[in-house]
Design goal:
Elements (H helix, E strand, L loop, with lengths): L6 H20 L6 E4 L4 H4 L15 E4 L2 H18 L3 E2 L2 E2 L17 E4 L1 H9 L9 H6 L2 H9 L1 E5 L3 H6 L6 H18 L2 H7 L3 H22 L10 H6 L4 H8 L1
Helix pairs in contact: 1-3, 8-10, 9-10
Length: 251
């Protein structure tokens, strides 16, 4: 097993050293963006040696201009399959076994898409629209975090400007979420002790755990960070400025 490299660093090097020179040679006039956003623990910066056992390795997204995507995509995919190295920094690039391949081709995991198609698929949102309050309240925190926390390695078509639209909640939405969070706590905080008084220790613990989760959620909001999904909730919380002071009483 090669030495572990955090995924964002590995994928940056993969783009700079393997993908970018290929595109410059074969498609010199094509504008594009290259990034690593969307699903994956490495996008959040939380990946470890254990992460390499599934869906992890040298990969990026290539965003093509909408007007040229249909015509350019097959040629780019064919060139990548034909010319990419089979391994990079000791890690195989053919880790997506769901895609068909032929002998001699590199079964890469470079997602070829457009900016509009990516956000439509990932957030269910058409980026040609304004983001309304109802949109913000239906976007999952985790997905917003993977857009804000990811990396854009090259941008020739305005990807960074689109990602910046999702950087954080507007002020009014933020205040609404804070109020809603405190309201959730107000409706449950007295129930933990009440369950304990009748000897329901499991029920009391469940309510206590929910209260801790809701308080942690308020901490993410107060520090204006999107909360990750449960696998990384505590890890993300530990990186907040308030974590050293609040972790002992929450624990």
């Amino acid at each position: 097993m090669p030495p572990f490299i955090p995924g964002l660093e590995l994928c940056r090097a993969f783009f700079m050293e393997a993908v970018q020179p290929l595109l410059a040679a074969d498609f010199p006039a094509l504008p594009y963006a290259a990034a690593l956003i969307g699903p994956g623990s490495e996008v959040l910066g939380f990946d470890t040696e254990m992460s390499v056992d599934h869906d992890w390795g040298p990969r990026i997204q290539l965003f093509l201009p909408e007007a040229e995507a249909s015509a350019a995509l097959p040629a780019i995919d064919a060139a990548l399959r034909r010319k990419l190295p089979r391994t990079f920094r000791g890690y195989p690039i053919a880790f997506d076994l769901s895609r068909p391949t032929t002998e001699g081709d590199a079964n890469h995991r470079i997602e070829l898409t457009t900016v509009r198609d990516f956000f439509q698929s990932y957030l269910g949102f058409d980026i040609t629209r304004e983001i309304e309050p109802a949109d913000w309240l239906t976007f999952p925190d985790q997905k917003l975090r993977t857009i804000a926390s990811g990396a854009v390695y090259h941008d020739g078509i305005g990807l960074e400007a689109v990602c910046a639209r999702f950087a954080y909640y507007p002020q009014d939405v933020w205040l609404y979420l804070l109020a809603a969070g405190w309201n959730r706590i107000a409706q449950e905080e007295h129930l933990m002790g009440r369950a304990g008084f009748v000897g329901d220790e499991i029920g009391s613990a469940l309510i206590g755990a929910r209260l801790v989760r809701d308080l942690m959620r308020l901490c993410f909001l107060m520090e204006r960070q999107y909360a990750p999904y449960p696998k990384w909730y505590g890890t993300g919380f530990a990186r907040l400025q308030c974590a050293p002071a609040l972790s002992p009483p929450l624990r």
